[in-house]
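Hey, quick one: can you model this chain's 3D structure?
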Amino acid sequence: MGLSLVVLLPPSVSGGELTVVETTNAPRFGPPLHRHTETEVFHVLEGKYLFEVDGQRFHASAGEVVSVPGGAAHAFVNVTEHPARQLIMILPGMDAEKFFIGLGRLMANGRPAKPDLDMFGAEWKVEFLGPPLSI
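Sure thing. Here's the predicted structure for all 135 residues.
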């Protein structure tokens, strides 16, 4: 998946209110277009990303913050030639480690079939809407 993730604050510490993770995305990698009920706040720590939020595309570079309201269709991709990093706050909290380990297993051999992706998404209340962004 081109992703490395460190959970800095698991939801158990905040009573389920917040999860904080730091991610590193390989060049030209990011999640598929998706939506979920949790709000996400992305603080770009290093590099540059192309974001899409509800059909609007824009770039965010180191130091910039992007807020994605719960329910908004969104995706992002690292547009640099080097790993890029983000600090991501998820409200309310979710078990990001378990989610991304499961998604990584599902995507270990490339993009899974839509029914498999939908089944995984249903378990987490995530709707996958399309492929990752291309640059």
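One thing worth noting: The mean pLDDT is 94.
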